[in-house]
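This entry is listed as follows:

___
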Amino acid sequence: MQVKLPKNVIINNKQSITIVGANGSGKTRLSVWIEKNNTDKNVHRISAQKSLSMPESVKPSSMENANEEFLYGGIANDKEWNKTYGKLNQRWNSKPETYLLNDFDKLMQLLFTEDYQKSREYREEHRELQNKEFDNETILDKTKCIFEELLPHRKLKIDAGCIKAGTNSISYYNGAEMSDGERQIFYFIASVYAIPQNSIIIIDEPENHLHNSILSKLWNSLEKSRKDCLFIYITHNLDFAVSRINSQLIWVKSYLGNEDWEIELIEDNSIPESLQIQVLGNRQNVLFVEGDSNSYDIKLYNILFGCYNIIPVDGCAKVIQYTTSINENPQLNYISAKGIIDKDRRNDLQINNYREKNIYIPKVTEIENIFLLPQIIKEVSYQLKKSEKEATQIFTEIQEKVLDYMKTHKEEQALLFTKSEIDNELELLKNSKSTNLESYEQELKNKIATIDFNIINSEFINKIEQILVNNNYEEAICLINNKGLIQESGLTTKLGLKQSNYMELALKIIRDSDELQDYIKQYINIE
């Protein structure tokens, strides 16, 4: 099926179109434009703003009237007028972008009218010729079938003029009492089946009230059942957006006014589709970081760098790859990307090389150690009603514990840095020009021969000993490679908190203090 978009863009031979874009970019306005400018086809739009109030019972009408009421919001003698102007006034109250769609009663009336009509037709045909084949499956039957496939724990019972839901004959209740999600599923299924052949179906926020485990199954089933229709989705759910098969992705950049949009068709490139949509859906510059969205370091980054769209990805290599891809992608030239990767005992030369590529490395080897900074410990102590003397005493004891840990684990920590330094040296062999095994083996031997393990290890031992001589606590927490250092320091025990409670309280204090944020940015600088 063919659909026309602004600026003479034509989409052909797709099962669906998926529209993404930032809030306020004009996605809903675009869907209204599509509805108004594809009048050669029936276009049925389901808005995001809609009432899910399901009537307890309905009475059947005539099929013609029930269809008109559902599709256009009312009945008129001039059917062509009703498809355009009547639809605008009656279904959308002359406010197609913002009006709260309220047509559940009209949908239910159409379902029961069609159900009654098919029953009448079947009985008439049956009287005339008992062996004649007759398709007596109604929209209600189809809706019930898919509904129960999606929600096997819930059954629907079709009674005269009403729907009942439940798990068995004893516990059935009126369908109007179903949950929002259940009513939404029923509404979507029935609406899609009630729409005429070869229609364009626009669904604004198809994910509303639906769990991700059901979302794709629902729309896969409906697309499979209505292959004659073109589905147009407007969604904020990235997983759903990239799950569509044979779908054209459209990025709505902005609404320019006067029915003019800046839009772009998304084509494949080196950035994964799901990530690209996430970047496109937000006007902010991007900051890629290691980890997952629930970790404390991501929460900290969101506080410190709130002007960025912070996207956690899996591992250092992905941070580097995606940051480079965004900055080199002409399609995304209005966005710049930066990345933060773990220090992982990288040396100063490597840190500077990454910085030139907009990849930044914190001063601390472990981000968790940020929460051991002196000012944060003291501010949390004050929040817990500790006096200045008590707060100072707590920090002094933590400082002693951390430095004692460094002294006790001096050889172990030095060995970690030694291994990393050697790994970094051997990493250079990735650029080897060797063309056979023998020459590569010799190149490897030559490289190993230039590495003095003892000197490298001694340098790190000396560095640690200098920190201990100077009693330099802040240098220690920057250098120590141990994610469990907070626990080792005994800090949470002294404060009477679980570690998770300490972290959450520290984050709250950091969030509310510009001064603390500036203090921490000395250790995590992306400028």
Summary: Residues 104-128 form the longest helix (25 residues). Residues 104 and 187 are 7 Å apart (CA to CA). The chain has a mean pLDDT of 87. The radius of gyration is 32 Å.
